[in-house]
Each structure stands twice: as C-alpha cells, then as structure tokens.
Amino acid sequence: xxxxxxxxxxxxxxxxxxxxxxxxxxxxxxxxxxxxxxxxxxxxxxxxxxxxxxxxxxxxxxxxxxxxxxxxxxxxxxxxxxxxxxxxxxxxxxxxxxxxxxxxxxxxxxxxxxxxxxxxxxxxxxxxxxxxxxxxxxxxxxxxxxxxxxxxxxxxxxxxxxxxxxxxxxxxxxxxxxxxxxxxxxxxxxxxxxxxxxxxxxxxxxxxxxxxxxxxxxxxxxxxxxxxxxxxxxxxxxxxxxxxxxxxxxxxxxxxxxxxxxxxxxxxxxxxxxxxxxxxxxxxxxxxxxxxxxxxxxxxxxxxxxxxxxxxxxxxxxxxxxxxxxxxxxxxxxxxxxxxxxxxxxxxxxxxxxxxxxxxxxxxxxxxxxxxxxxxxxxxxxxxxxxxxxxxxxxxxxxxxxxxxxxxxxxxxxxxxxxxxxxxxxxxxxxxxxxxxxxxxxxxxxxxxxxxxxxxxxxxxxxxxxxxxxxxxxxxxxxxxxx
Length: 483
Ligand code: NAI
Prior knowledge:
single chain, Isopropylmalate Dehydrogenase
C-alpha cells in the first residue's frame, strides 16, 4: 500500500521523521510518496499551499499523512489544513482523547479514566470563511449547516460508536439559540439515532457540555458536534488528557482521508528536536488501523504505552524530577520497547483486518441533495441596508417602498427588533435588517423582490438580502429578538 506524506512546517519534519522511523523499525508495510504542501509552497506562489502534483498524488492514493502546516498571516490566503479537509470532503473529524498512563493529569491522579471520542463536522459551519464587511463597521460571517452534510457526519459517528461498543453518543449543540442551523443538526442527529436503538443517544447544550466535561469527563463516550464548537470542545478534551501533545486527529471521507495531529507547527520550539511526537504517532496508528494494519498498530501502541508508563518523556509533559529526552531519543525508546506490554493499559487488537479504505475515481462532483416534496414559497425578504437614521425615521422612509405587494413587518439591528416596538436602550450600529412580507400571505416572485431592491436602493445602500422561504407550515427564517 502506498500513501502520500507531507512533512509540514515548523516541528512537522522533526516529528514526521520520528514517527516514520518507528514505522520502519516495526516493519509497517507501507510505501510513502512525499508531496509538496505547506507554507514554503505558498511562498513559491501556489495560492492553495500545494503543488498540482501533490494534489494529483493525494487524489490517486486516497490517504494523506501530514505534519502541521502554517497558514501565512495577513496575505489573504486560506488555511491549507482547512482547504485540504474541505476540498476532499473529509467530512468527519475524529479525535480521540484517552487517559495515558505516565501522562499525569488531575483526572489520572484522581483515578478518573477518560476515553472520549469527539466527532466533529469538518466541512461546513463558519469554516467556509465566507465573510463580508457590510459597512465599514459591520462584518458578517455565513454559517452553513446542511441536511446532507450533517447526515453524512452523524451516520459515520453512529456507525463508529456501534463498532467501538460505545454506551452513549451525545450531540453537543446550541439549538436553543441557533434554532435553524444547530436545530437542523440536532434534528438530523435524532433522525439517525432511530436506526441505532442499541445506542443511548442524547444531547447537551454546548456550554453545559463544557462544564460537564471538566467535572465528569468519564460520563461521556462519543460526542458529535458542528465544526467550530467541535474544534473548541476538542481542545478542551486535549487539556483533560495532558495537552495537545496527546491529541490525534483523523479526517475521514468516503474517498480521501487525512491523518494529522491536532496541534500546530509550534514555531517557538522548531528546529530544536524537542517536540513531542506522540500526537502524530497516535494519528499514524489510527491511519494504520484504517488501513487494516492492526498488528503493526498494536505493537507500536503497546510500546508507546509502555514507554510512557516507564516515565520517558519529552519536555512538554511528565515527571519533572526525571530529565526529559529529545524527539529522536523518545522515538528510539519506543522502538526499544517493541514487544513489551503496558501494565496499566488495555491490550490493543492484533488481528489485521481488510482495509476499509477504497480508492476510486469520480466522473462528476457528487451532488448531496435530500428529497423534499413540500412546496416552497417566498413569503418575504430581509433586506440589509446601511443607515445611521433612528428606527422611526428609517421606518417612515421604508414604508414608502412597500407598495401594494409588501408590508413592512419589522426593523432590527444586530438581530434585535427596534421597530415597530423596541427599547431606547438598544445600542445601534449603522446597518439594519428591514423585513418585508407579502401583504396577502401569497408567495412572492423573485422579480417582485428585485423591484423592491431597486426601489430601496434609491434611498439606501443595500448591503445584502435573504429570501424568507417557507415549506408548508415550516418557516425557513428566524424572528428578530423581541419580534
Ligand atoms: P501550536 O499547536 O503550534 O502551539 C501551541 C503551543 O503548544 C506552543 O507552546 C507549542 O510549543 C506547543 N506544542 C504544540 N505541539 C507540540 C508538540 N508536539 N510538542 C511539544 N509542544 C507542542 O499552536 P499555534 O502556536 O497557535 O499555531 C502555530 C501555527 O500552526 C499557526 O500557523 C497555525 O495556523 C498552525 N496550525 C496548524 C494546524 C494543522 O496543521 N493541523 C493546527 C493548528 C495550528
């Protein structure tokens, strides 16, 4: 089997070298094709941080094992890490956080074992980075949550949880506030849960989840989250088990999967051969298991666990009374412990499985679309305009534009209604949302809306607009606070 490998930036080459030396010593039956990705590729003028050849190799081989990569600051380029995950639709980001004996934490000292798997949506949410300045004072970010994207991820999470023999699968969300976006994600979660009656499925609001994770981490097994919340919660979980040095990450897709550590390029310790390679090694072990190479994975994992238990450590963790070793010596210690079994950790599976990884080529971009036979109607429009008028003056002007087709129903500022009712204490910024609805509750046509846009643009700068869609009795838009 051949995989693509990218060393990455900063400490990337040092930890990749350490991990590949361990793989080689264990006789892992993999061939590597090194690809050009990272900051130095951006610097050469490739705006997506990878060469065309790297892209082709990864698409042909289907597996990328990568070191951390730096996103150049202030050059308007997107993160190569996010670009890679999104371009190749690695929709499920699986991050496992386990108590490792030899890595002391408040929980290990208290005898509370942790074994949490975070499954984070990896493509959607605010990570599209679709952002606009609507006025010189107001920035807007779009947050995409889709039904097919959520279902893809949540099905993966349930299937993985069942295979792992999990007791509980929990959805973290903020659907009490973001009723349409997180609401849709939660709805999909319970839709999929029906197909897995053997698993205990429940949900927790994400702020409460954070509190419960730091007070009772042993009560959670698999936690499913949207992209940004999943990113934040997984760093929290990394802290529970000893820090970023122990946080592996697998980005799983149907065609291409990417294995990497959660941490970044650690510029503060680059070039000193002192970085901890454990997180990249654990990511590599997840990759070996994904490829069916269970035996090699368990030999290496047992040796890693034995090494940690014996007190060998790099400078970022471990018993301060024992001198730390450097990256190379840490890798050599693991190699020296091949064949040894950890005393306090469960034994890993050793039988090789057929690989679950299948590489095949696509003729077209797959279209993910769910069937919906309920008729869609346009009930109105939210028009975002720039203005520093007071709400009453603004309403007076807007009322002139409605004509017979539209009624002005609400004006809001930063999501809070300020007209027809509101409070004098609501601070304003120079950008309002003017909501018009159809006067007779019949569906509007897009051409009508263009007419309204043109009319309003005579008085205001129109920043953007959103249609108010409905499906049967289901409204596809939220109300303003106070509406
Ligand atoms: P970072 O994870 O690189 O560093 C945070 C702290 O953790 C630093 O003190 C660092 O020394 C330490 N640290 C990280 N990994 C370590 C290891 N293996 N051994 C010992 N100590 C370790 O986060 P930061 O500084 O926010 O980001 C640096 C760069 O990395 C940025 O350009 C960022 O965009 C990039 N990055 C890349 C990621 C990826 O490739 N998946 C993920 C996160 C950040």
